[in-house]
From TrEMBL:
PROSITE patterns reported in the protein's UniProt record: MFS, SUGAR_TRANSPORT_1, SUGAR_TRANSPORT_2
Organism of derivation: Gilvimarinus gilvus
Main location (coarse class): membrane
Entry protein name: Sugar porter family MFS transporter
Domain of life: Bacteria
Localization in the cell: Cell membrane
InterPro entries assigned: MFS_dom, MFS_sugar_transport-like, MFS_Sugar_Transporter, MFS_trans_sf, Sugar/inositol_transpt, Sugar_transporter_CS, XylE-like
Keywords: Cell membrane, Membrane, Transmembrane, Transmembrane helix, Transport
Family the entry assigns: Belongs to the major facilitator superfamily. Sugar transporter (TC 2.A.1.1) family.
Residue ranges crossing the lipid bilayer per the database entry: 12-31, 51-71, 83-103, 109-130, 142-164, 184-203, 266-288, 308-325, 332-353, 373-396, 408-434, 440-459
Major facilitator superfamily (MFS) profile domain: residues covered: 18-462
SUPFAM superfamilies for this protein: MFS general substrate transporter
Length: 471
């Protein structure tokens, strides 16, 4: 019997189920981003690359991410959120295989860019899809699962890298079938990528996309399945009215307010959130964790173990946010995280300051400084994943009005991945030039800056319906 007054347990479970399928894209986003962490030595040896070359090999994926995020938003407005996620899943499969089989830098970069396009598309489409199927009262919880999935993917890649390296005796040693261990680190991703592709075939298209494309009957059918007969039809009318006030075909020009002659303020807020999330330096820990800790005097095995610890701490932080984001709101979590990250990053910078460097360029930290750096970095990782990690994706998925959600996400996603590329590409250069302490000093500055950005620019979206979002 269908529901006549609102979502029942069955429909709520269905929403949770399809949201979890969408977040497999986040898992792959995290895995694809983190797997590179344990392969840097292998890439340097296989392709005989210097610091700048290695930095580009590692960060090349992020160029694909930028393109994927930019075009996915617009293409999703034309072909659908689900359709773009299916394409992303196929790209994940091709990239995972190709990255492991590559024999030249150019070939490797090509496959990594292809994977990056999948990551970029999934990074903006998964939260958008979840926001568009979930009820406002638990939309934040379900969207924050995206960050849990991302961190779970990162942690899974760290565990996988550590297990493979320990089994083979190192990331550059032969593992199986005559291939080096670092290549197998990429191929493990084929398993979740295949699961994602086939699981996507059972989820419905976003109802808000269907309304925007004028597919009334399909939209009503999905909404009734999600919310029940009465609430589903009422929600259809609400969505249709919100779109009818402008026009039914979303486009990039909607981001510009023709009446006031300026880009909509909400677009700048989205760009600010996206860029600052990266400028606090989080992906230095995730992409270069092994290199960073080895530079600080850890062995390869100790560095990989530290990565696993960071990933586990991150998951714990995301789980806390999962239960808090719809209770205390988005904005308090953001400014609290910003303040805490500024302090913890400052501690890490202090721990690295003044440490002597040996002939190989490695820091010789004292035991006290090493522990201070380790504790400071993991407190920073915890606070990031308590705040900016999940909350930015929650806000980007829900803060834009229906008419500009795809385009707004595209621009914010582009900014996020370009910032990610800049930070990731520049870190090896800063490591060789100004050192770890100065690099972390820069990330500390942006963490402090983000406190003021949140206070003065970000508006709370907790409990608001998507149709009530203003730009």
């Amino acid at each position: 019997m269908s529901n006549t007054s609102g979502p029942n347990q069955g429909s709520t479970a269905f929403i949770v189920f399809i949201s979890c399928i969408a977040t497999i894209g986040g898992f792959l986003f995290g895995y694809d981003s983190g797997v590179i962490n344990g392969t840097v030595k292998g890439l340097q040896i296989a392709f005989d690359s210097d610091s700048a070359g290695t930095g580009f090999s590692v960060s090349s994926m992020l160029l694909g991410c930028a393109a994927g995020a930019l075009f996915a938003g617009r293409l999703a407005d034309k072909y659908g959120r689900k359709a773009l996620l299916v394409v992303a899943a196929a790209f994940f499969i091709v990239s995972a295989w190709g990255s492991g089989i590559a024999t030249t830098t150019a070939e490797f970069v090509l496959y990594r860019i292809l994977g990056g396009m999948a990551v970029g598309a999934a990074s903006v489409m998964a939260p958008a899809y979840i926001s568009e199927v979930a009820l406002a009262k638990y939309r934040g919880m379900l969207t924050s699962v995206q960050q849990i999935a991302i961190i779970s993917g990162l942690t899974a890649s760290f565990f996988s890298n550590y297990f493979l390296a320990e089994t083979a005796g190192g990331s550059t040693e032969m593992f199986w079938a005559g291939y080096e261990t670092w290549r197998w680190m990429f191929w493990v991703e084929l398993i979740p990528a295949g699961i994602f592709f086939f699981a996507l075939l059972v989820i419905p298209e976003s109802p808000r996309f269907l309304v925007a494309r004028g597919k009334e009957e399909k939209a009503k059918a999905v909404l009734v399945r999600l919310y029940g007969d009465v609430d589903g039809i009422a929600k259809y009318t609400e969505i249709a009215n919100s779109l009818a006030s402008d026009h039914h075909s979303p486009r990039f020009s909607d981001l510009y307010d023709k009446v006031k002659g300026r880009v909509r303020p909400i677009v700048w807020v989205g760009i600010g959130l996206a860029v600052l999330q990266q400028f606090v330096g989080i992906n230095v820990v995730f992409y270069y964790g092994a290199v960073l800790w080895e530079a600080a005097g850890f062995t390869e095995s100790e560095a990989l173990q530290t990565n696993v610890l960071s990933g586990t701490i991150s998951i714990a932080a995301c789980l806390i946010t999962f239960f808090l984001v719809d209770k205390i709101g988005r904005k308090p979590l953001l400014w609290f995280g910003s303040a805490g990250m500024a302090i913890s990053l400052g501690i890490v910078a202090y721990a690295f300051a003044g440490a002597p460097v040996d002939a190989a360029g490695n820091l010789n930290l004292s035991q006290e400084s090493g522990l201070l750096a380790l504790y400071g970095a993991n407190i920073y990782v915890f606070l990031f994943n308590l705040s900016w990690g999940p909350v930015m994706w929650v806000m980007l998925g829900e803060m834009f009005p229906n008419q500009i959600r795809g385009s707004g996400l595209a621009i914010a996603g582009l900014a996020q991945w370009l910032a990610n590329f800049l930070v990731t590409w520049s870190f090896p250069i800063m490591l060789a030039g100004i050192g770890l302490s100065a690099a972390y000093g820069i990330y500390t500055f942006f963490a402090a800056l983000s406190v003021f950005f949140v206070i003065f620019m970000v508006h709370e979206t907790k409990g608001m319906e998507l149709e009530d979002m203003k730009g």
